[in-house]
Design brief:
about 900 residues; Rossmann fold; 8-stranded mixed sheet; 22 helices; about 40% helix; disordered C terminus
């Protein structure tokens, strides 16, 4: 480009002194649109207003305005111009700031073209209609700062010129400053918050609604690339996937050709509910063209999507596209530069009309395109009505112009006041910043330095440290030298049937707020597209995995796309979309749906338990029956049937059985240290006493018969002490085993966490399992010995054949305890305790029933048989048979 070649030879300007140095001639056509207002100090502005549909250049004539063609305008951006003019007007009217100094301004247009942006910037640097690079001729305006531009490309083009002269450049567009070469050009200041804050806000918005499947449209330029590079890592870190990333053609001119309309349209028609749209100011209008070309004008089609719009986008239409329907953007959520209503700005807009300021060369085109009319002096029109100049700005629907201050206009307003307050600080201090210190700068007469003579580069130290409250009461200051602090507003757009819209401020992103208030959103204020059946709508690759399931990645798909599989047995997941299931804590168990952990119940065989009540009743019954039998035997102690086979052993046997029937109460109730120590040893010793007595009674029968034979040597063994010796010896052996058990590894209360899935079994741990089975084995040995002896003497002449009854009792006793071992080993918890109690009661009942019930029958019902004569005859008869 010609202008880029010129830039390579530019140096600091030389001042023409009189006629000693002749300035070269350099006529060029004046810009069609600008706004110049003189003043002691001048603020420049480069706005983005008009778009010219190019006419092909044939290079057969000199450059002229004809090459620019017919203009189209973005009427809403005219507010940026008015915001600058209003801020200057407000400062000039304020006697508290820059007294005796009048600010002026010169606002040019970038025309969305690099060439015209360079042209406008050069015009700000030099004279309006004539400029000479590297020279400063005649009486020039004192340009102290330039405000612009709206887009990154425009700002970069401006910076390449303004950076040579170190003129402060106040950028009011929302884009990443990394796009500008900060090392080469260090004279610009951003009037909007960092774009990174907006990206964090987008992530927080997705997390708020649980969206993890979004499509991204970004312009195919440096801005779009920077946006994607900063946003994509945040998406991944937050568990959000981009379903696609489509780069839209950079829209600098509305007559550009869209080469991939079909591809873009296919993305728009996908089943993805949420789209992020990042682009330049005209991207909305350009996207609407794509949708129109794609065929969305079908009345029967409902296009329902959630649009997430970034701050650089504006919900705008150009003058030529004023009739387009914007209902497809109903419910869009946009991140906007924070703004606040400025006092008197609305009245300033209402006074604006084509007749109020003849220096404003933007307003005529604005008026014609905003009100769809024409001025007679512009060009012939037959389809539009004639403009009167008295039309009301409040009648324009919002896609074309807004009466409330937009975020970009608010940034322009703050930029002007930042420059003014920096100048005022410089004026008030009357100091010059030199070598890191402030030193007084006066002339020989002692007069203070006049601001009219300052150089623009001298303003930088004051701009960097400026901090003030604007007329809306909000603080404006620069952070990290180049960017202002601030926040983003979250706006919900509600489109209206008349093709206008209503903004709803539903939240904010404020990095300076406390941690829990940096992102706020009022969901109740949000308006969604009426086509959504569920609000807020879902935006997922697949449905959430409910609690009780876990995610399983789909091969070849992004991590947001997965299958849901049920948690394995014994594991749960207690929230949606969990990657893995986990086991419950030791004292809990999984619910049936495998989505929560339920505290386990403490389980033991209590007296209140139905099983415990039943066993207690049976135990008490046997205790009473045994006591009754004992009472019968004591009452009839002198009868032959009671005296037979050692009456005292009979009493000991009944008392031991009575205590055996009482021992189950040690097994019922919550296991404690004392009960655990006593239950097995008490039961073992008592049953050993009972079985030992039975063995002694059996031995008496056998020895008594053998002793009666002539010449038998068994006489010396038959006597009163033998049965007691047998019973005592057998009991002492069992007692010794129990003492050794308690001394080495005694039983203790214990918790069984694993036997029951839904309960914690409170039980007695036997300590040494070996000792426990030694006790049982010894008791079994006694029972087997008694059974063997009784079986051998079952046909011997005995009083009422007691040996035969003992045989049956021992057979039942041994059967019970043989069955007990496998049953006990296979049971857990309450069942294990119940099995042992049942075995105690059954084996005790077999002894009581088989041995004593026949005798009770004779004592109570057949007393005629209970005499010595019958006893002798019975024994004699049995002896003869043998």
């Amino acid at each position: 480009m010609l202008w880029l070649v010129m830039l390579s030879i530019l140096k600091l300007p030389k001042i023409c002194q009189g006629s000693a140095l002749k300035c070269p001639a350099g006529d060029i056509f004046p810009l069609p649109q600008d706004w110049y207002q003189p003043g002691d100090l001048l603020i420049g502005g480069v706005s983005s207003q008009l778009i010219y549909v190019s006419i092909e250049a044939l290079f057969k004539e000199k450059p002229s305005l004809k090459l620019l063609g017919v203009p189209d305008m973005v009427p809403k951006f005219y507010q940026h111009v008015l915001a600058l003019a209003f801020a200057v007007y407000e400062i000039n009217q304020d006697l508290q700031i820059l007294p005796n100094i009048t600010l002026g301004f010169h606002i040019c247009d970038s025309y969305y073209e690099a060439v015209m942006t360079y042209r406008s910037t050069l015009d700000l640097l030099f004279k309006s209609s004539r400029f000479f690079p590297n020279y400063n001729c005649d009486k020039q305006r004192n340009l102290i700062a330039v405000i612009g531009g709206l887009g990154a490309a425009t700002s970069s083009h401006m910076a390449s010129l303004l950076g040579f002269y170190k003129i402060p450049q106040m950028i009011y567009g929302s884009f990443d400053l990394q796009e500008l070469n900060t090392t080469q050009y260090s004279s610009f200041y951003s009037m909007v918050p960092k774009e990174s804050y907006q990206n964090i806000g987008i992530i927080r918005l997705f997390q708020y609604f649980g969206w993890n499947w979004v499509g991204i449209f970004a312009t195919d330029n440096n801005s779009g690339e920077h946006f994607l590079q900063s946003l994509e890592p945040l998406l991944s870190e937050s568990g959000i996937c981009s379903a696609f990333i489509k780069r839209l053609p950079y829209i600098a001119r509305l007559d550009d050709t869209f080469l991939d309309v079909n591809e873009i349209y296919s993305y728009l028609m996908s089943d993805i509910n949420t789209f992020i749209l990042y682009g330049e100011s005209l991207t909305i209008a350009a996207l609407r063209v794509i949708l129109t070309v794609g065929g969305l004008e079908n009345e029967n089609f409902v296009f329902k999507k959630v649009w997430i719009l970034t701050a650089q986008l504006e919900f705008v239409l150009t003058g030529l596209s004023r009739g387009w329907d914007l209902q497809i953007f109903h419910g869009a959520v946009t991140f906007a530069i924070h703004s606040k209503d400025i006092p008197n700005f609305g009245e300033f807009l209402k006074r604006t009309n084509p007749h109020w300021n003849k220096r404003d060369k933007f307003i005529q085109v604005f008026w014609e395109q905003a009100f769809d009319c024409f001025f007679p002096e512009s060009w012939e029109q037959t389809e539009m009505g004639q403009c009167t100049g008295n039309e009301n700005l409040e009648d324009i629907f919002k896609p074309l112009f807004e009466m409330s201050m937009t975020g970009h206009s608010y940034s322009v307003y703050n930029a002007v006041h930042s420059v003014a307050h920096a100048l005022h600080a410089m004026y008030s201090s009357q100091f010059n910043y030199k070598r890191g210190k402030y030193t007084s700068r006066t002339n020989k007469k002692g007069d203070a330095v006049k601001l009219q003579n300052l150089q623009a580069w001298q303003l930088h130290p004051f701009l960097q440290s400026i901090s003030f409250n604007n007329s809306a009461g909000e603080q404006v200051s620069f952070e990290h030298r180049m960017e202002t602090g601030g926040k983003f507003d979250i706006i919900n757009l509600e489109t209206l049937p008349n093709n206008s819209f209503q903004r709803r401020r539903v939240g904010k992103v404020d990095p300076s707020a406390p941690q829990d208030e940096q992102f706020t959103l009022d969901e109740n204020m949000l308006v969604w597209h009426p086509g959504f059946k569920q609000v807020p709508p879902l935006s997922l690759c697949n449905e959430h995995c409910r609690p009780g399931c876990r995610k399983k990645k789909k091969e070849g798909q992004p991590f947001c796309c997965y299958e849901c599989i049920l948690c394995p047995d014994g594991e749960i997941s207690n929230s949606t979309d969990m990657d893995d299931c986990f086991r419950c804590p030791e004292y809990h168990y999984p619910s049936n749906d495998r989505d929560t952990c339920i505290p386990k119940n403490i389980s033991f065989l209590s007296y209140k338990d139905p099983l415990g009540i039943g066993l207690s009743a049976v135990t008490v019954s046997f205790v009473l029956i045994t006591a009754l039998v004992l009472q019968i035997f004591i009452k009839h102690k002198d009868t032959p049937i009671v005296k037979a086979n050692n009456r005292n052993l009979t009493y000991i046997l009944l008392i031991s059985l009575l205590l055996c029937f009482l021992s189950p109460f040690l097994f019922l109730g919550q296991p404690e240290e004392v009960s655990c120590l006593l239950r097995q040893t008490t039961f073992a010793i008592l049953f050993s006493v009972a079985v030992s007595c039975v063995l002694a009674k059996t031995m008496i029968v056998s020895l008594a018969f053998l002793a009666t034979k002539p010449g038998s040597r068994m006489n010396k063994w038959a006597g009163r002490r033998l049965p007691y010796s047998i019973a005592v010896t057998c009991c002492l052996i069992q007692a010794s085993i129990c003492i050794a058990w308690l001394a080495t590894s005694p039983p203790f209360p214990d918790l069984d966490m694993h036997s029951g899935n839904k309960e914690i079994i409170l039980q007695c741990n036997e300590g040494s399992v070996t000792m426990f089975y030694c006790v049982l084995s010894y008791m079994g040995f006694l029972a087997l010995a008694s059974f063997t002896v009784a079986f051998l003497v079952r046909k011997l002449p005995d009083s009422f054949n007691e040996a035969k009854f003992i045989t049956f009792s021992m057979l039942a006793f041994c059967s019970v305890w043989i069955a007990f071992v496998p049953t006990y080993l296979s049971a857990t918890g309450k069942a294990m305790v119940a099995v042992e109690i049942f075995s105690i009661l059954t084996s005790g009942a077999s002894l009581l029933g088989c041995i004593f019930f026949p005798k009770c029958y004779i004592i109570l019902l057949r007393p005629d048989l209970n005499n010595r004569k019958q006893l002798k005859e019975h024994v004699l008869f049995k002896s003869q048979l043998l």
